[in-house]
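Exercise 7b. Backbone tokens:
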């Protein structure tokens, strides 16, 4: 008797956990970047220093070589997109990894630097 109710308890806990994970997935539908992160003012010189990792793929002159241009974006859009990759809301393994390694102030610095380029 005891055992049986224990089993039922365990099963209901497990079910509860599963539905929580599922709810978590659903939440990504209304992805949003914190206002504070969007307003972060990055240091463009630090961004330039970090940009070496990016310009191996993204053309610094803004031309398209199969990889989209990232120069001349407004800073908020840039920060937004980088957080979409970082939070894995936007699919793309390489960019998810690149963004995942960056701290919030590094993302802001890159946004500030690339915004100065045309
Ligand atoms: C190995 C190559 C590679 C590297 C290195 C790389 N990227 Fe990307 N990046 C891509 C590709 C490919 C895409 C397009 C992915 C997609 O379709 O979502 C992309 C997309 C982007 C976008 C969105 C562009 C758009 O038009 O939506 C931004 C912003 C971006 N990268 C920033 C960066 C930054 C900042 C770095 C350096 C920290 C970086 N990338 C490093 C290949 C790279």
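Sequence design result:
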């Amino acid at each position: 008797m005891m055992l049986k109710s224990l089993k039922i308890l365990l099963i209901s806990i497990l079910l509860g956990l599963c539905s929580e994970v599922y709810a978590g997935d659903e939440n990504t539908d209304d992805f949003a970047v914190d206002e504070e992160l969007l307003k972060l003012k990055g240091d463009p010189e630090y961004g330039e220093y970090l940009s070496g990792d990016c310009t191996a793929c993204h053309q610094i002159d803004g031309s398209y070589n199969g990889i989209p241009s990232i120069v001349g974006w407004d800073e908020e859009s840039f920060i937004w997109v980088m957080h979409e990759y970082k939070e894995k809301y936007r699919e793309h393994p390489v960019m998810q990894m690149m963004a995942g390694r960056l701290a919030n102030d590094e993302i802001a610095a890159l946004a500030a630097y690339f915004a100065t380029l045309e």
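Instructor comment: Residues 57 and 67 are 7 Å apart (CA to CA). The chain is about 60% helix and 0% strand.
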